[in-house]
Design a protein that fits this description.
mainly alpha; globular; about 160 residues; homodimer; MarR family transcriptional regulator (chains A, B); DNA-binding; 3-stranded antiparallel sheet; WH-like_DNA-bd_sf (chains A, B); MarR/SlyA-like (chains A, B)
Chain lengths: ~160, ~160
DNA sequence: TGGGTATCGTCAGTACACCAACGAATTCGA
DNA sequence: TCGAATTCGTTGGTGTACTGACGATACCCA
């Protein structure tokens, strides 16, 4: 009888939210390209020539995961990957023509899906929704990434 | 230049939120037991004797995933699994004594973690946060689970 | 200029999370 | 009562997502 109510647990809610989104994406956007793949493609359309690590940072994926996503995008012919002649450790990534076309097509569908997904909320609530989630996620990421210790007093 | 701003995409935010939660869970709650495992354990403490499918429904996991989670909980000796003598298709699940103890311990830590996780929000904002996410997730799950078609007119 | 350090990408291991297909058990219907 | 349809759990396949360890490359500095 000591069980807790999971509907007040942000982690559980986040998981359910993500799964619900996954299902809707699959039916309304694409069964081939996943949401993380689209995010990476989007980052490369915005900034062609990113290396893997930076691309991962842009969308919030670690080095291992971005490598797998890039590999799948490459397999589909949506992204090109070439060694950086200036720095042999890096791979430079850029979308292919096909990748740009796919990105354009999915952008339209994603916008439609987001409308359906957020339909339960008023426009004002949607703004709050984004703001609250972003603040919580940013703060939690900040706990992991000490970024600027500023004064870094105490210990 | 046709790239979109992902900070207004609920799917992307949901993923980031979940990852941020995952990291905090790992450092503040447990490196052994994951958040989904705790959710399942919690469901079994609340309702001992659930079968796998129903347990999965309680926490929002499909049959394949709940099977793996149960297998890990069983391997750790936290959950017992016996065939239902009334219905040979089912396995009845209940937490072991060790499982109950672990659940109790993690409940305390989880509460602490949630406080840290939600610290960027005021108490009022936290309420809104839960409400908005729950409404969006419920609605999206409803799209997949026609549950009660009621009148089901049109097509 | 050579060696220590840092960075990039990869690989192995673990854990969700979905779908589709399958066998076993049960239930429903003719 | 016997066969069809349903339900439960498993299996195989794909795709995130993290950690830790590793080799290759680059950088920094004595």
């Amino acid at each position: 009888m000591a069980a807790v109510d999971l509907t007040t647990h942000p982690g559980h809610l986040a998981r359910r939210l993500q799964q619900a989104h996954y299902l809707l994406w699959n039916t309304m956007v694409s069964e081939e390209i996943t949401s993380p793949q689209f995010a990476v493609l989007n980052a490369l359309v915005a900034e062609p020539g990113l290396d893997q690590r930076t691309a991962g940072e842009r969308v919030g994926l670690d080095r291992s995961t971005i490598a797998e996503v890039i590999s799948r995008l490459g397999r589909r012919g949506l992204v090109d990957k070439v060694r950086d002649p200036q720095d042999g450790r890096r791979f430079l990534l850029r979308p292919t023509d096909e990748g740009v076309r796919t990105h354009r097509k999915l952008t339209v569908r994603t916008a439609r899906m987001n409308q359906v997904f957020l339909a339960p909320l008023t426009a004002a609530e949607q703004t709050v929704f984004f703001d609250l989630i972003r603040r919580v996620a940013d703060a939690a990421e900040g706990l992991r990434n000490p970024a600027e210790p500023l004064v870094a007093q105490g210990g």
